[in-house]
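Hi everyone,

Forwarding the result from last night's run.
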Amino acid sequence: MHSVARILHILGVIFWIGGGLAGAMIAMTAAGRGKDIRETMLGDVRRALLFVSAPGLVLAFAGALAMLLPGWDEYRAMGWVHAKLTLGLLLSGVSGVLSARIRKAASGERDSPSGLYAALGGTLAMGAVLAVVLVILRPF
């Protein structure tokens, strides 16, 4: 069961972070286009985030909980697990901000500069790298 949960967690993270990064990169490109093209592109990105990244986030969290809860007695003393959980929560917030900004820009409600999409995508990427480092090194 633990192996299945780990596989689901990793697949979820791939779809969640990968989808978010792809969405951020496309949104960066769209931000420099004309209004009609921008809104069309961002509408497509929004749908992709809803059907790829958001389910990936749910799958990542479900897999994490399936691993965490049965082994909590062991995990609760591991500082790296707490750091990774905190990082996961922060990255889910970043994903939410990215999704909200793309939704608002796609509807024409509020434009966002390409630099914001770059910052959000970069934060997702760096957070994912940090999570992998925590899992491999288990520094505390």
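The chain has one domain: 2-137.

Cheers,
N.
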